């Protein structure tokens, strides 16, 4: 007679990987509880929803759905949306599905939360050399990651949407599936321009011979395909490809609630001074990334999956720290990647926890109000995190050099 323990120890094969029923049960429970915790926040309305998302949904309803795609924002007061057209397609789709606008928008984000969790599971499976238990723990961690829960369940933001495609792009890059990398990256970019944060990582891997540049044409081709429905509805091509340029010019504050180096600059600067610092900071960020690429390029060592995950986290965090006009939500890709990074050791897990603590504080400042009024102490913590991960990156490289030699 079989016992419950025998049942849980039963193994099945999924895509050639042996998984116990206990593992499937654990993953299912984590998935269910992760959805439940998000549902508990579904009635919360953030400022972004009240002022932006709800307005865009209302505009879509008034336009009658598909015709909303043909209205040029800024030219007509019937459309104020300033996101890429791919997210506008989501809004139009939700118009036809019907239901509570707030709940429907959050449902989309929660669906992509799950895709993000599965993507991290796959990356964790690579970085742990096929450890099913650790991979499922990474999956469960994403389902309960505070910023992930708050971003979709409370904020109704779509960061999980572009991040899901960005993570799939990174996964396929690590597997050396170059064509899929560029396609997924283009889809991610078509949702939000923050997908470009993984470009420095891709350039370094190209310099190390891991990216075949001949596939780069797939990026513009895929991006142009995403514009077709909007152009069919009547939008101008030049206007569509300039959406992100308009977004960049929208803000002139040095820091948009992200704890980076600009938190040490007085907020009372004139707009002209801020614009000069924005230009200067952008150039300095490119310089730092260039120095990193130049240093790594000629080092003779094999790139392990752990090194690539570490490098991806480091370059994204470096961008966030050195670039001006960063929102607190822009750390989303790095925060999820840190789960795959942290699952490899207790010390790295501590880094993941520290970054989450800092991010929850910045999220709370916007969503719920916070007792933390100054960001500069958090900026010191983020700097320490970057230095620690940078040192880990360096030690991994030196160890690989010795083994290669």
Topology (elements, then pairings):
Blueprint (H helix, E strand, L loop, with lengths): L3 H6 L1 E4 L2 E4 H19 L7 H17 L21 H13 L3 H27 L4 H13 L1 H9 L4 H16 L3 H14 L7 H9 L10 H16 L3 H5 L1 H6 L6 E2 L14 H27 L7 H18 L3 E2 L4 H11 L3 H22 L8 H29 L1
Helix pairs in contact: 2-6, 2-7, 4-5, 5-6, 5-7, 5-8, 5-16, 7-17, 8-9, 9-11, 10-14, 14-15, 15-16, 15-18, 16-17, 17-18
Brief overview:
This protein is mostly helical and 405 residues long.
Terminal Cα separation, in Å?
57 Å
Number of DSSP strand runs:
4
The domain tally reads 1
User: Radius of gyration from the CA trace?
Assistant: 22 Å
**Strands side by side in the biggest sheet:** 1-2
Contiguous uncertain segments of 5+ residues: none
Shape: globular
- The number of helical elements comes to 18
Main beta-sheet annotation: 2 strands, antiparallel
Order of helices and strands: HEEHHHHHHHHHHHHEHHEHHH
Mean pLDDT: 93
Q: Classify the helix fraction into a percent range.
A: 55-70%
As a percent range, the share of strand residues is under 5%
Helix-strand makeup class? mainly alpha
